[in-house]
Amino acid sequence: MEVKGRAPGKIILAGEHAVVHGAAAIAASIDLYTEVHLALRPSGQEDDLLEIDLKDMKLNLSWPCSQLKEVLGDCSGDTTLPRLCTSEKLDLLSGIVAEKKLPQENIQLSSGLCAFLFLYTSILGFKPGKAVVTSELPMGSGLGSSASFCVALSGALIALSEKLFLNANEKKIDLELVSKWAYEGERIIHGKPSGIDNTVSTFGNMIKFKKEVTKTNSITPVNSTTPLKMLITDTRVGRNTKSLVASVSERALRHPHAMSSIFDAINSISDELALLVESPAADQVAISEKEEKLMELMQMNQGLLQCIGVSHESIETVVRTTMKEKLVSKLTGAGGGGCVLTYVPTCILPLYGLFCPLSFFLQSELSAAVTENIISQIEECGFRCFTVEVGGSGLQVFSC
Ligand SMILES: Nc1ncnc2c1ncn2[C@@H]1O[C@H](COP(=O)(O)OP(=O)(O)OP(=O)(O)O)[C@@H](O)[C@H]1O
Ligand SMILES: C[C@@](O)(CCO)CC(=O)[O-]
Ligand SMILES: [Mg+2]
């Protein structure tokens, strides 16, 4: 039996990092995906391998299932109750991965491979199989590559374990369950994730997310009344979400009151942004007012992200370059390099002090010209730009 899981990356419009500390954040899926194709090997065959083929990295690794069983011990359990990967188990998994002596340029994949082995053996046990992984997302850049990998993989594993596509089984995939397993994978990669990335990758669209300690997380759909056009710049500066999240927590320990005020301010920005995105705007004047407010909120959020220490010279370069054209940018995801969002308003004339309500054609022509000009200035700095569709579908699972 073979299945394919496909899950999107994401952008965070407001609230990254603060969300780990209990503030609200707004995230939306984007139209860039990770796919995991999963096939079980027929039982009774000589080779009892568990294999992973990371196509984009041209990296193929395998482990005999008998060896995994010997090292990891019993991994069975109720698959409907996602389990935490204990630190003892993580040490065992890290040892199994370290034996493969990954080339230095791929060393950051170790945590992803530990998450793979943990999720596979927890959900399917030691059944021989093969996973083929491809992704359109730049890895480790703030667009949720780790979450989309964990969600696509968990979706495929649950579909196989519940034999979803066999014998006219009409049961639908349990998205809550997938998201919870993916969260356990994210924990291996991120250390202390809030859960926003796996949630938006699983369910898609735009959400307001707030982590709750004693009850279930609060997840509210945000229904945007206007399409949001985002230009994304990949600064190509490598970073790692786990260490950035840890550095913010350390700063919060050093300056608890100041940091808690910043997290509160970010919470208010997220609340206001969600209301704004959902508010109707009947005419060009209302649309342009709404867009200006949105840009102001993004600008304030970027300033606060700089305050908590997760901006970077490369991010500030993008912020300054777009500011010259009166556009606003903010980092997205964990920061420290990675990707930057630039909001491209539909009403660009008011930014230049001009107002022309009838000329929609002129607006879109000018918007395209300004965007092109900005892209060429940003790319001169050695960065890469692309645009994305915001708020599409979440996890999809197919039978192959
Ligand atoms: N396609 C993939 N295959 C295997 N591992 C992956 C894949 N995509 C991501 N990973 C794992 O996730 C790590 C990157 O996760 P990280 O959380 O640092 O960045 P991100 O998810 O892209 O950004 P952010 O969390 O800020 O949105 C990689 O180093 C790797 O271990
Ligand atoms: C930096 C962070 O807030 C978002 C990463 O996309 C971490 C998290 O919420 O898990
Ligand atoms: Mg991540």
TrEMBL record:
InterPro entries: GHMP_kinase_C_dom, GHMP_kinase_C_sf, GHMP_kinase_N_dom, GHMP_knse_ATP-bd_CS, Mev_gal_kin, Ribosomal_Su5_D2-typ_SF, Ribsml_uS5_D2-typ_fold_subgr
PROSITE patterns: GHMP_KINASES_ATP
Pathway: Isoprenoid biosynthesis; isopentenyl diphosphate biosynthesis via mevalonate pathway; isopentenyl diphosphate from (R)-mevalonate: step 1/3
EC number of this enzyme: 2.7.1.36
Pfam family, one: GHMP_kinases_N
Domain GHMP kinase C-terminal: 292-342
GO biological process: isopentenyl diphosphate biosynthetic process, mevalonate pathway; sterol biosynthetic process
Reaction it catalyzes: (R)-mevalonate + ATP = (R)-5-phosphomevalonate + ADP + H(+)
Keywords, sorted A to Z: ATP-binding, Cytoplasm, Kinase, Lipid biosynthesis, Lipid metabolism, Magnesium, Metal-binding, Nucleotide-binding, Steroid biosynthesis, Steroid metabolism, Sterol biosynthesis, Sterol metabolism, Transferase
SUPFAM superfamilies: GHMP Kinase, C-terminal domain, Ribosomal protein S5 domain 2-like
Ranges for domain GHMP kinase N-terminal: 125-204
Region forming the signal peptide: none
Localization per record: Cytoplasm
Domain of life per record: Eukaryota
GO MF annotation, one: metal ion binding
Record-stated family: Belongs to the GHMP kinase family. Mevalonate kinase subfamily.
PANTHER family hit by this protein: MEVALONATE KINASE
Protein name, per record: Mevalonate kinase
